[in-house]
Amino acid sequence: MTQRVALVTGAMGGLGTAICQELAKAGHKVVAAYHPEFDKPEEWLKEMAEAGFKDVVTVAGDVASIDSCAAMVAEAEAKAGQVDILVNNAGITRDKMFGRMELAQWDAVISTNLTSLFNMTKQVSAKMAERGWGRIINISSVNGVKGQAGQTNYSAAKAGVIGFSKALAAELATKGVTVNVIAPGYVATKMVMAIKPEILQTIVDSVPMKRLAKPEEIGGACVYLASDIAGFMTGATMNINGGLYYQ
Ligand code: NAP
Q1: What is the spatial distance between Cα 246 and Cα 240, in angstroms, rounded to a whole number?
Q2: Structural domains of the chain, with CATH
Q3: DSSP-assigned beta bridge partners for residue 182
Q4: Which helix (H) or strand (E) is 30 found in, with range?
């Protein structure tokens, strides 16, 4: 297997950690990008090393700021080399029923979950196309595919992720660069564990498989999409949701 450089945003979150681990297990050099305000990167690195992942490089940056993304990718390239695989995973929720949603909650979710794709992908896509190989993997959500009450901001951003990916996939189709989406259902990470227990139980009950996804089940899909064997798949959305919703 060819070793590639894989940059993962939101790397120190629940899903990001699993994505980093699965990509590292597959032999890739992982660059873990984290929010500058996250105060425990050393602790995360220590835990990764203890779990056997000693070769991970870290960079800090705000995916909602294009200047920060430019600086972060430059630092990643200096530390690890050109980025071959970009996983746009950073995301937030600011849930409110639409009648009570403030513009600030809308803006925060759109800029972190959607504009971040512009900010990050801008830094790497042309260089991937020049080299004739690249993988861009964008993390959407089942709630972007089906729409979710209380999440007009998040559903819009995550649906936007799918539209962005289809359009960029078409632009890069002849360049050896694929652009795909993973739309996870509910995954057992802190984002989901923060949901009130009674609501979480209702969610689990609604999933045909009657459980949450394990983070590594999403990380494994990233490994596939990042591989050479996935070279004919582009503009696609992988729905990994325990049978919750298909389109
Ligand atoms: P998480 O644990 O909260 O991780 C999200 C990560 O994104 C955190 O490390 C967070 O850093 C980072 N982040 C937030 N804003 C950022 C910014 N402006 N710049 C850089 N990094 C930023 O959530 P998760 O569950 O792993 O979610 C990962 C992705 O999967 C998200 O895109 C989410 O929407 C998507 N997703 C999750 C689920 C689920 O069930 N968990 C389902 C479908 C889709 P800080 O915490 O330090 O701010």
Answers
A1: 9
A2: 5-187+214-239 (3.40.50.720)
A3: 139, 238
A4: strand 29-34
Q: Is residue 84 in contact with ligand 1, taking CB distance under 6 Å?
A: no
Question: What is the reported pLDDT for 247?
Answer: 67
Give the Å distance between the CA of 82 and the centre of ligand 1. 24
Strands 57-60 and 85-88: unpaired
The gap between the terminal CA atoms of the chain, to the nearest Å, is 33
The model's pLDDT over 174-183, given as tens digits with 9 standing for 90+, comes to 999 999 999 9
Inter-residue contact 161 to 153 (CB < 8 Å): no
State the 10-residue block means of pLDDT for the chain, 247 residues long: 93 97 98 96 97 97 98 98 98 97 98 99 98 98 97 98 99 98 94 88 96 97 98 98 89
Which two three-digit tokens encode residue 4? 């590639």
- pTM here is 0.98
Angle at 189 between CA 244 and CA 194, to 5 degrees: 95
- Which ligand 1 atom lies nearest to the CA of residue 15? 26
Tell which residue, 118, 170, 94, has the closest CA to residue 9.
118
Q: Which two tokens stand for residue 47?
A: 């835990």
Contact present, 100 and 149 (Cβ < 8 Å): no
**10 CA to centre of ligand 1 in angstroms:** 5
The C-alpha atoms of residue 90 and residue 48 are separated, in whole angstroms, by 19
Query: CA–CA distance from 98 to each of 92, 151, 155 (Å)?
Result: 17, 8, 12
User: Is residue 104 packed enough to be buried (19+ CB in 10 Å), middle (13-18) or exposed (0-12)?
Assistant: exposed
Amino acid at 54: K
